[in-house]
Amino acid sequence: MDLFDEDVGNISQPSPIALVEAKRERRQPRNQSKPASHEGNAKWLHAHYDPYSTLYTFSSCIALADLHGDGDNKLIIANLGTGKYDMKLKVYKGTTLMTENTIIDLPTAVCTFFMDTHDPRTPAVAVASGPYIYVYKNLRPYFKFTLPPLDVNPVEQDLWNQAKEDKIDVQVLKEMLESLRADGSEGTLTVRSLRFLMLDPEDMPTFANLHKHSPLKRQTVITCMTTLKKSHSEEDAISCLVIGTESKDIYILDPEAFTVLTKMVLPSVPVFLDVTGLYDVEFRIVVSCRNGNIYSLKKGSKAPKYSIELSSQPVGLQRMGKNVVVGCMDQTLQCYTTKGKRLWVLTLPANVMTMELMDYKSRGFKAIMVALDNCEVHVYNEKYLVNTIKTEDIVTGMKFGRFGREDGALVMTTKGGGLIVKILKRNSVFEEKDSRPGPPAAQNQKLNIPKKTKLFVDQTMRERENAVTMHRMFQRDLYRLRLDAARSYVKALETSMTPMSADPLEPLKLSATVNGIGPSFKLTVNLQNTSSATPSINLLITFQYDEKLYQLQRSSIKVPLLVPGLNYAFQTLVECISDKAIADTIKVFVLRKGKSMPIITGNINMPVSEAQVVV
Amino acid sequence: MMGTMRQDFGAAAMALVPRGMDPLYTALSLFRRRKFEDCVTVCTMLLEKNPYDQAAWTLKMRALTEQLYVDEVDVDEEGIAEMLMDDNAIAEVARPGTSLKKPGTSSGGPSPGVRPTSQSGRPLSGFVRPGTQGGRPGTMEQAIRTPRTAHTARPVTSASGRFVRLGTASMLSTPDGPFINLARLNFHKYAARQSLAKPLFEYIFHHENDVRNALELAALATEEAQFKDWWWKVQLAKCYYRLGLFRDAERQLKSALVQQVMVDTYLYLCKVYVRMDQPLTAIEVFSQGLEHFPGEVSLLTGIARIYDGLNDSTNAVKFYKEVLHHDNTHVEAIACIATHHFYTDQPEIALRFFRRLLQMGVYNSELFCNIGLCCFYAQQYDMTLNCFERAIALASDENMADIWYNIGHVALGIGDIALAYQCFKLALASNNDHAESYNNLGVLEWKKGRVEQARAFFQTAQMLAPIMFEPHYNFAALSEKMGDLQSSYIAARKSVESFPEHMDSNSLLKQLKDHFAML
């Protein structure tokens, strides 16, 4: 298989050197040539991208560990293969595949942990698969742990016993088992019974005959697994394995003897685990379950004390300090205290694929990384989006940690089976602040309000002291002004000076424009009937002007019927016959036939005419 | 009038000359006392006696010129032809803040929502001078159509009509023919005699308004002076400027400045640059001038005006303040600073400045109107209406509309809708083209529920002042309410065009777009 050394594009040849090269580039960031300008590239170096690495895995099946104690962290990936075969435990040194171990069943989780105190400090790799935990040391199979068998339903046991003794035939067995399943105790049936019921009727006798002699065992399946430090919190201290099973149990295993130290019972099947603390001192396990609840377990408690009911199914669970951050199927990221109080909810632009804690110890920076199905990985510090990484494909699995000799490496596997490695630039700083969601930054911006001057304050003082006099004065003036305005208004109405009629029976509006530069002008009179329904008829337009100055082409214009709402334009030519460079006003009257009083009047200030240029 | 004057001509002239006084001396004295008409009469008498009296001839020329003398530096209004057929345009799309043609591109200009704009879209200036009202229209149609009233009309070209009007003489017929027949003058002869050539040039340039002949004379004279006389260079530049040869004018002025630094030359050079639409260069030249003449008010004012033209009110005010530092009675500076303060929400300070103008003896309706507004917004209510009363009493036909409009605003401020309605109508009665009043009336009508009326008013306002964003937005909002989405969209687009940052228009536009996109 040469899938692993494919050179894709201008991405550096996958080899351990690639990482070192990237490191060197990071020191002189100006000299590097970026493969593509992604937004995240301001903070991340693109180290490796192989779209054809045929990896089908999830975050829980990726681990980073120094397997040989040589300071070079390897990438351990349990590949789910096709789901039926080709399930392998792959170990990458740098970006080259170092070893491959076949796994018999579908892996559900991979952990690395120290199981002894021997030197050199090399961790063991635990791969959870079916009811077993396969432990590898030095990349060789070392131990297989089997979960303790569960009690078999006595009726089922009885049925199979009778089948073994040929007391009942296959048909009866099937019916009895089906009724048992229908009772609601499907979850308690053994794998053998369930498989039996799934078969076609003609295959059933063969299956029953083949298996009925072996003793009936009911085994459960591991759904999730993580590690818990036993008595010391050092990086290389001995750790216990914490396992969640399909039988709604949590087991804590002793790393040396592989015995069950503690067993806890949950109301539902655990899906994601998050563990803090030390086994011997105090620890807390936060579990999100298949019923959409999150439970919190403490040392000594056999059953959960607190539960958080989510609005949607969780897709990822991470702990940030004392808070739990959950990515849900309804495109939200929610944060709760361990006691179940919701702190905040963020709506994400796309569906959550997986989550990962970014713990960059050298900077003391912790953030939650959320991979979305719009080919982006968002980095959230608290509820603030601090960085976005654009990826070439949808990321399904992520691991942040030390890879090779690089502390801040991000390993991502994609939906299409690709492998991406990015390295956090050492000089990159994540803004604590919000870059998009939440209240906009403008809200905190201070508006540039002019300061109130001393003068203003003085005047306010005056106002305060003489409020009564000022008010009286103002009111008196206001009455006078109203009177003046009313008088002028009446005068304007009487002479119909306004360009819109005040008569409700003749709702007309006039506006006039003068075009041209002289001596000839074009005078346009626009008439509009502003009533809603009544048309205007029998109207005339006429003009008043100084005959020594102007000559009009049409001194009177007949107005046709005016339809309400439309604008009618009437035009006439005006000739300026004076060469004195003076201008006058032309008055426009709109009249009703048979009445001498104009309905409306418009005053047109004529422009000064340009002198006629004789060439 | 001239005719009658000629008949009793001798007698009038004799009456002007006291007995025993040399007539030429009397004429000189009259000239100095700026009694130009009388001076001309005496000189004519002298010339009738002796047509070759050079002194009398020169004096008459100067007297005639002085009568019509216009300060070339200040008076300048671009004609329609210059603006629209400008072949000196350097860049069609100037970089932001480097052109007077697109002043809105410079940053930091006041928002039209806060400071209203003039008919051409410039922020209202505190002081009306040529160019502050007009701006540059975009199209020929706009240029010809926009408010062409007597006081804001724009000449077709600065080379003809307007200058004739400003210095009327030559076109008005004189009964006894022109004083000097230019066609018969031998320019070579006069060019050689500097003392005659200079008054003659000014006469030709200002009185006769014959730029071509003036240029010819100036060219000959500067040659005669071996290109060493800066004065002739400046005059040449004036001629070139009038002819639209700005680069030639610039060269002459620069050369003149090398020989002799003069404030006038600097001002003229800047005028050339402004015409070439290079405001930043103009400012640079002004600054160079200030190095030679520190604190020269006209130069500082020039800088301030250019910043004003670029919509950079902060810098403009800075320079106007500098002007006041050197000349504390500068009306333009005081008015501009006051206006700036008024529109930056400090009416109490604006009030101080306007009061200063009042103390200086400026006594007109505009000032009282402004003081009234400042008093109102600075909460000095007892003075407010008093000032407006005086403003109305002093108002001419031209500004009556604006005063009623402002009173209308005060009425709106105190919630007296009826009074406001009357005031806006009165504003329209005085000036039929008052678009702001139309707009406000429209809003009032809308409030009253008379939608058709409101619509008509908005339409008129839109037509009268296409540069204002308010009527466009109001019309859009009204049409949207009435369900005429197409009209609403068109109007909203126009509103955004004239005020791109207007939030309401933008949100309305977005709402409409969403609506159109919806199935």
What does this 3D model show about the protein?
The complex is a heterodimer of chains A (615) and B (519). By secondary structure, chain A is α+β, with helices and mostly antiparallel strands. Chain A has 3 domains: 3-149 and 219-428, YVTN repeat-like/Quinoprotein amine dehydrogenase (Methylamine Dehydrogenase, Chain H, 7 Propeller), CATH 2.130.10; 167-211, no CATH class; 508-605, Gamma-adaptin ear (GAE) domain (Immunoglobulin-like), CATH 2.60.40.1230. Chain A has 7 helices and 36 strands. Chain A has a 4-stranded antiparallel β-sheet with strand order 1-28-27-26, covered by helices on one side. Chain A is elongated and about 130 Å long. Among the domains of chain B are: 2-68, no CATH class; 163-348, Serine Threonine Protein Phosphatase 5, Tetratricopeptide repeat (Alpha Horseshoe); 433-519, Serine Threonine Protein Phosphatase 5, Tetratricopeptide repeat (Alpha Horseshoe). Chain B is elongated. The model of chain B is unreliable at 1-8, 133-138 and 146-173 (pLDDT under 50). The chains are: A alpha+beta (615), B mainly alpha (519).
